[in-house]
Amino acid sequence: MSIPSTLLELARPRWLSLLMIGLCLGYAVTVLTRMPQWMLPLPALAWLGLGAHFHWGAPRSAPGTSLSRRWPWALLPIALWGLYLYLAESFGIVDLSAVFFHLQAGMADHGGVSRIGAAFFYTLSMIILLASFTWLIRHDHRWRRGEPLLAILLLVSNPLLYGVGQRGAAIVTKPGAWLERQYVEPILLEAPRDPPNLLLLYLESIERTYADRERFGDAYAELDAIGEHGLVYEGIRQVDNTGWTMAGMIASQCGAPLMPAGLLHDRQFSPLDKVVPGVDCLGDLLSAQGYQLTYIGGASVNFAGKGLFYEGHGFDTVLGREELQPLLDDPEYVNNWGLYDDSLFEFSLQELRRLNAEGGPWGLVNLSLSGHAPYGYPAQACLDRQGEFDGNDILYSVECSAWLARDFLARAEAEGLLDNTVVIVASDHLTMRVSAWEQLIEGDRENTFILMGPGIPQGRQKREASMVDVFPTILEAMGYTIDWHRAGLGVSLLSDEPTLLEEHSKEFFNDRMREEIVLQERLWEGLAPPSQELEPEVPQEQIVETPEDAIGEEPAAVQ
C-alpha cells in the first residue's frame, strides 16, 4: 500500500519543524492569555498557513545563499521564555522573589514531586523546539538575516529578565527609603492584666475569594460558619513578596514583606542560617512576655526555612513531618508534602492539651496542607464525609480544609482548651494555579482573615489592607498597646488609622518594593559580610535652627 504524497510532504523536516514551532506558539498564547487550551491548534494552524504562504524553510533560491551551519542567537532567549512559561503554567503568577528565597532557604523535602513528569515533558518539548528552530534558521536565509533582532526582542520582552534587571538597578542606585521610613519598630507599650492565649491557624491557599457562592458553591461555607462567631475582614489584598507560604507567614507575623536576601550581597546564594534576623516578630514579642510558643505543620520544617524562622524568633517547640510522622498510627499515611490534615489537627489538639496543662500563656501556630495547589490533599476524614475525590477538583479540597478547621475548633472549644484565647483563621497567601483558576482571576482576590476571642466584636469589616496589617491587629486583639496602632509596615485593623494601602495604593506599595532596598537590608541585618571600615571623619556640629526646619523629623543632634 503506497503512502499518499501529501502525507510524505508533511513528514518532511520542513513541515515537522514548522508544526513543532506552531504548537509551541499556540501553547504560549494559551498560557499568556485567557484563551482555553482546546483552542491551542488555532495559533498553530495560523502559523502553518503563514509558513505555506511565504515558503518558510523552502525559500526560492537567492543569489549567494547557501546552507548555514551556525547556531542561532535566539536559542538561549527561547529557552528562557520556555522557563517563564513553565513557571506561569505551574504557579499562575511568576514570583522572582520566591525563586531567590527558596534557592537560599532550601528546597529539600518539598512535595512537588507531582511536577516531575511535567518538568520532563517541558524539557523534551524545549529540546525539540530548539532543534526545529535551528533547522529553520539554517535552511531559510530570510529568517537567518532577521534572527539576531528576534533574539534581542525575546530577551527584552521576557518578564523574568525584566524583573532581574529592575532589582539590579535598585541595588546599584539605592533610590529612596520610603518603606523604611514607614516601618515602625514593634514595641509593646502596655500589656493586658490577664494575657490571652493565641491560636493562629494558617489554611494553605484557602483565600476568601472562594466565599463567592455564585462561582464556587458551598466550598467555603464552613469558614463562613466560623466567621459568624467572630470578626471577618474583607479586602485583605496580596502585595508583592507575600505570595508564598513563608512570605505570607512573615508578613502577618513581622509586619513586612519577605524581600529575599538574594541580590543584596556576595552571599546571595549561600544557604541561610537565619531568616529575617533584623526585625522582631510576633514570636519575639510574645516570648519576651513569658509565652510558651509552638509551631506545628504537616510539611517538613526544613523546607523554605520554616524551622530557621520559628526557632530564631522565640518559638520553643517546632514540629513538622520529621517529628510527627513516626508518631502516626500508620506512618505510611502521608502525602507528597507530609501529614494529612486530619492527622495534623489531632496532633495539634494534643499540643493544646499539653500547653493548657502547663499553665501560663501560650501560643500555637498551625499550618495546614489540604488546599495546596494544584489539586489539594484531602484527608481520609474528608473522603469519608464528601465521597470520592476525582484528583483534580480544588473545590473539593477547599471544602475539606474548611470543614477540618471548623471541626478542630469545635473539638478544642468543647474541651475548654480555648478559654481566654484569641483565635485567628487566615490563608497564608492566595492560591497558585488550580482547576478553578479562570474563575478565581475573574475579579479582585483577597485573603482569609477571621478574628475571634474575648472582647472582639462579631461582624464584618471592609478594609483595603494586606497581610502586613495582620501583625499589629493580632497584638491589639490580644490586648497589647502598641505605638500609634502600628507595627512594622502594618496598621491595626481594630483602629481607625488608615493602612498604607488606604493612604496610597497597592500599586504604589509594590512599586516601592521594586525600587528600594533599605528595608530589605533591615530585614537581613547582620547576614551580609561586614563592609570595610572607613576612616573616621572629623566631627562637625550640625545646627537646626527650629524644629520646623526638620520637616516633620526629629531635630538633628549635635555630632
Overview of the structural elements:
The structure is a single chain. With 559 residues, the protein is an alpha/beta fold. The protein has two domains: 8-58 and 68-173, no CATH class; 178-523, Alkaline Phosphatase, subunit A (3-Layer(aba) Sandwich). It has helices at 5-10, 13-32, 41-54, 75-91, 96-105, 116-139, 141-157, 159-173, 178-182, 213-216, 221-227, 245-254, 282-288, 306-312, 321-324, 341-358, 380-386, 394-414, 437-440, 470-477, 500-503, 506-515, 518-523, and strands spanning 188-190, 197-203, 231-237, 292-297, 317-319, 362-367, 421-427, 449-452, 459-466, 481-482, 486-487, 490-491. A hairpin with a 2-residue loop joins β11 (486-487) and β12 (490-491). The chain is globular. The model is unreliable at 529-559 (pLDDT under 50).
The structural class is alpha/beta
- Based on the structure given, which CATH architecture of the largest domain is correct? 3-Layer(aba) Sandwich
Number of helices: 23
Corresponding CATH superfamily of the largest domain:
Alkaline Phosphatase, subunit A
Highest-level CATH class of the largest domain: Alpha Beta
Report how far the terminal alpha carbons are from each other. 97 Å
